[in-house]
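stage 2 :: seqdesign
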């Protein structure tokens, strides 16, 4: 599979995070809160940016299943934001999504192949996102972070060598925080 390319219609401020966090980041700060998945057009844009167009439908059933997955991910990430592992309730939400699919291993001439099987095509995008989240947890739950800027609600997976990334995007949130600190010092 090739790396997904962001759909030019995608209005979100942070793109290119792992699939689970990319789904979570379909909601971002604003008044009211911006939500790419508020309708089927946004679903088509998200599927395109995620490289899932053609693999996953963009109908009402797919949107409902994806929103279920996003809520399960949001609950689990809220636990991480609070400095704790996801508890039984959060894990049950993730498992509810995962119960709709499985990975089947097959042998092929090119080597082992993993095939994802889901109850219906409308479940695939959400299942893939939750499965991706499990992979992120295995790599290090401490690397799943909320942006340090208070007004920002976006999450990222910290791949920096020292694990000290603080901002979803330095050019926006990091600079705003630095400017606010500078302004505060200048006024003092």
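stage 2 :: out
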């Amino acid at each position: 599979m090739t790396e997904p390319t962001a759909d030019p219609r995608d209005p979100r401020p942070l793109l290119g995070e792992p699939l689970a966090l990319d789904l979570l980041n379909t909601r971002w700060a604003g008044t009211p809160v911006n939500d790419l998945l508020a309708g089927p057009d946004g679903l088509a844009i998200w599927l395109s940016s995620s490289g899932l167009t053609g693999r996953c439908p963009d109908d009402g059933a797919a949107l409902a299943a994806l929103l279920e997955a996003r809520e399960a991910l949001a609950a689990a990430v809220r636990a991480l934001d609070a400095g704790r592992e996801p508890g039984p309730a959060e894990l049950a939400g993730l498992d509810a999504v995962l119960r709709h699919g499985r990975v089947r291993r097959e042998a092929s001439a090119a080597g082992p192949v993993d095939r994802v099987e889901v109850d219906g095509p409308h479940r695939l995008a959400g299942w893939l996102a939750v499965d991706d989240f499990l992979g992120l947890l295995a790599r290090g739950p401490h690397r799943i972070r909320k942006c340090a800027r208070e007004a920002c609600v976006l999450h990222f997976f910290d791949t920096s060598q020292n694990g000290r990334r603080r901002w979803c995007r330095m050019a926006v949130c990091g600079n705003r925080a630095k400017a606010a600190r500078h302004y505060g010092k200048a006024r003092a």
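stage 3 :: structure notes
- Residues 19-141 form a domain with the Jann2411-like fold fold (CATH 1.10.3300.10).
- The longest strand covers residues 101-108.
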